Amino acid sequence: MVKPIILAAGAIPAIVALLISIPLITKPDIPFSAANPNDTIEIEYTKHQLSKISFGITDKLSSQKTEILLIKNNGDVKYSVTKEGYPQPEIESKLSEEQLKKLTALIKETGFIAIPSESFPVKDDVMQYQKSNVKVTLNGAIKQIHWPQQNATEKFIPPIITMVESELDEIVEQISE
Predict the structure, then answer these.
(1) Closest C-alpha among 144, 34, 158 to residue 100
(2) How large is the C-alpha radius of gyration of the chain?
(3) DSSP string, the chain
(4) pLDDT tens digit string along 38-66?
(5) I need a surface site. Which of 35, 81, 89, 136 has the fewest CB within 10 A?
(6) Which residues are bridge partners to 68 per DSSP?
(7) Is the CB of residue 100 less than 8 Å from the CB of residue 75?
(8) Structural domain spans, the chain
């Protein structure tokens, strides 16, 4: 028969592991602690809706819609759209301090700046696709990444990139309403 002391000694590590893992599982957000008040960040996010026009031997890429989101260190936001070559009125807004901290923490915590710049070639048979670009300047370090939507390339686009993209798309949606 197993002594109660041995059962208790064996249960303690399991209980401690459970107490540590529950907060990590229930709160998957990026911690704001990664954002330092002295951090300086600027983000330029560009999204192009492209169409490939074929002239027989040659192809030409035409932008149907281009969106540019510029976020400054103080939270100032500028959003501009060009549809079929015609610029729309620019929208200016301001991010809350919490949103800016969340974005900075996301970029710092995920190691976005350390992502290797690689090429994501577009498949030859794709005629319409979205191509995105983000340029992040974090404390003087600049990182610029270009990528097409996942179904337009055979390469795997890292989840870090798509996380930053979805966060920036949320901001665009918020200020363009």
Answers:
(1) 34
(2) 22
(3) ---HHHHHHHHHHHHHHHHHHHHHHH--SPPGGG--TT--EEEEEEEEEEEEEE-SS-EEEEEEEEEEEEE-TTSEEEEEEEETTEEPPPEEEE--HHHHHHHHHHHHHTTGGGS-----PBPTT--EEEEEEEEEEETTEEEEEEEE-GGGBSSPPPHHHHHHHHHHHHHHHHHH-
(4) 778 899 999 999 988 877 777 788 889 99
(5) 89
(6) 46, 80
(7) yes
(8) 4-30, 34-176
* pLDDT tens figures, 88-140: 999 999 999 888 888 888 888 888 888 887 788 888 888 899 999 999 998 88
What CA–CA distance (Å, rounded) separates 120 from 131?
Answer: 10
Q: How far apart are CA 123 and CA 48, in angstroms?
A: 17
As assigned by CATH, the class of the 34-176 domain is: alpha beta
Neighbours of 165 (CB within 10 A): 18
Torsion from C-alpha of 131, 144, 68, 66, nearest 10 degrees: -20
- pTM of the predicted model, to two decimals? 0.75
φ, ψ dihedrals at 55, nearest 5°: -110, 35
C-beta separation of 77 from 176 below 8 A: no
